[in-house]
Design brief:
Layout: H1 8-41, H2 46-78, H3 88-117
């Protein structure tokens, strides 16, 4: 069901608010991913790595809830003429920011995964 939003400005402001929150959450995930990298570098600190993973999963669930709340508004916005909506530029910049944060997280996650895949030298005497 498409939400009825009479004013495109209202829709854009609602989405802007949601994506601002998502940006903050993705920035937190980025920091947690960097902390995971530090945990990986400290041998035997996999418990910390796992704890950070749980935190990230909780945050991703929050992001999913925000996305679910915005779904109808996003769908309604697709059919609106936004040329006269001054807040659309802010929304566009915010979407770019969220996309860059996701790419940053992905890059750190790939580096973390590569660190886990690196074969360790056999212990002396093995």
């Amino acid at each position: 069901m498409i939400a009825t939003i009479p004013d495109p400005q209202v829709a854009v402001e609602e989405l802007t608010s949601g994506y601002e929150e998502e940006a903050r959450l993705y920035a937190t995930i980025f920091q947690l991913s960097l902390e995971q990298r530090q945990a990986l570098r400290k041998r035997g600190n996999l418990r910390r790595f796992a704890d950070l993973l749980e935190e990230k999963e909780d945050i991703l669930r929050l992001i999913g809830q925000i996305d679910d709340r915005m779904a109808d508004t996003r769908e309604a916005l697709m059919s609106m003429d936004l040329r006269s909506c001054p807040a659309r530029e802010r929304l566009g910049a915010l979407l770019d920011c969220v996309a860059m944060l996701i790419e940053d997280v992905r890059a750190v996650e790939e580096a973390n995964a590569a660190f886990l895949d690196v074969p360790r030298a056999a212990p002396v005497g093995a």
